[in-house]
Each structure stands twice: as structure tokens, then as C-alpha cells.
Specification:
UDP N-Acetylglucosamine Acyltransferase, domain 1, 7-stranded mixed β-sheet, 5-stranded parallel β-sheet
């Protein structure tokens, strides 16, 4: 369960203020935000888009503050996360360093654990369910660029939200691409690149990731399995 939700905020000279509502928003910014929501191409910097730039700077400033905390300053990190993220449940633990695009588009459920170097490219929303675990060096990106070079010369990009459901475990170095949903209880193997939606209760791995097997009742009987020996020429 996510326990707090607040409107997008920006910071000017250390003071927090609500992002302008539709009535006061520059029409150029409104157009970009609409394009982001519709998964259309957009650029997010330039004249009339100063509020978007300030949102990103605010998030990165807070992430810098988070990453500068001492190892024992658990209370300080919790306070900063509460200010940085769009919403956050109970018993969330994120190891520094943390990288964000905005921060306020990230929504974490209860019991989320993020190991070192979690990167969240949250130009639009990233939704993370309860008891999700991130190993070191995981990247979740909601944003990509068009294939044809003519379309990306001006920096044009598109965005689509990412959904990670309850009880997912994402292995070290995995990359989750825009628009992907990872079903409840599933595992993403280390080093995988997830380009498609993952069903619930499966193990996926590879580049691009594919389903390796289902998770079954037999997996309740845990015992350590040492790595196999690699064979030359196999």
C-alpha cells in the first residue's frame, strides 16, 4: 500500500511550490506534458519549458542530498526520499547512490528494497509494488528515442510508464525499457534487458529477456545450487 501522495512540486531558491495548474501553465509546457502522456515525440527543454527544467533540477538536487548522507543517517535518507518521490510506502530502503530524472514520478509500495546504483529515468511514472527487490545497478527507463536519425537530431524522445507489480525481484544490472509491465512474483535475471511485458510468476533472463520457466510450488523447497562448470567449446 502506498501511504502518501502529493502533487508535483518544484523548488525555487530552496522553497517548494506547486507546479502551475492548467490555468497558469505556459501552453508550450502544456503541449509537452500532453505529448508525454500520449507517448508522442517531444523535447523537454527550451523556451516556455522552464518549469520542467526546474522539476528535473529539484529532483537531482534532492538525489545529490540523499547520496551525500552518512551511512548511519537512516532518518535523513527517509526524509529526503519522502520529499523526492511522488509516493512511498512503509519500510522502504534504498542504498545510495540513487539516480533520477525527476524523482516525483516514482511511486514505491511497502517494503521496497533498492541496492546500490538504482537508476530511475522517470520522465513519466514508474509504479513499483510491495516487497519489490532491486539488486545493484538496475536501470528503469520510461523514455526512449525514435529509430530514424532525422527524428532524433533535435533530441526528440517518447515516454511510457513502467509498472512493476508486487513481489518482483530484479537481478543485478538488469534494464527495464519504456512501457514494460513486470507481473507479480516474477524474477528478472541479472544483466537482462526487458523489452516486453513479463507474465506473473515466471523467471525471465537474457538480452532481450525471454521466459526461462514458471515459478511453481516446488520452488518453496529451497536449497542452494552451486554454479555449474562451464565447458570449453560448449
Amino acid at each position: 500500500m502506498i501511504h502518501h501522495q502529493r502533487e508535483t512540486m518544484t523548488t525555487i531558491t530552496g522553497k517548494t511550490a506547486l507546479t502551475p495548474d492548467d490555468s497558469s501553465m505556459d501552453p508550450r509546457e502544456r503541449d509537452v506534458r500532453d505529448r508525454m502522456d500520449r507517448h508522442e515525440l517531444y523535447t523537454d527543454a527550451g523556451e516556455g519549458l522552464e518549469s520542467l527544467t526546474e522539476e528535473r533540477l529539484r529532483g537531482k538536487d534532492l538525489a545529490d542530498d540523499f547520496n551525500a548522507t552518512r551511512a548511519r543517517d537512516e532518518a535523513g535518507r527517509k526524509r529526503i526520499l519522502f520529499e523526492l518521490l511522488g509516493s512511498m510506502g512503509e519500510n522502504v530502503w534504498i542504498e545510495p547512490p540513487l539516480r533520477v530524472a525527476y524523482g516525483n514520478h516514482v511511486h514505491l509500495g511497502d517494503g521496497v528494497y533498492g541496492n546500490f546504483n538504482l537508476t530511475l529515468v522517470d520522465d513519466v511514472n514508474i509504479y513499483v509494488g510491495n516487497r519489490v527487490m532491486f539488486a545493484p545497478n538496475v536501470t528503469i527507463t520510461t523514455t526512449g528515442h525514435p529509430i530514424h536519425p532525422d527524428l532524433r537530431r533535435d533530441g526528440s524522445q517518447f515516454s511510457a510508464p513502467v509498472h512493476i507489480e508486487d513481489d518482483v525481484w530484479i537481478g543485478a544490472g538488469a534494464i527495464i525499457l519504456p512501457g514494460v509491465t513486470i507481473g507479480a512474483g516474477s524474477i528478472v535475471g541479472a544483466g537482462s534487458v526487458v523489452t516486453g511485458n513479463v507474465p506473473a510468476n515466471v523467471v525471465v533472463a537474457g538480452t532481450p529477456a525471454r521466459v526461462i520457466r514458471e515459478i511453481t510450488e516446488a520452488d518453496r523447497d529451497f536449497h542452494y545450487r552451486p554454479p555449474r562448470d562451464l565447458v570449453v567449446g560448449a
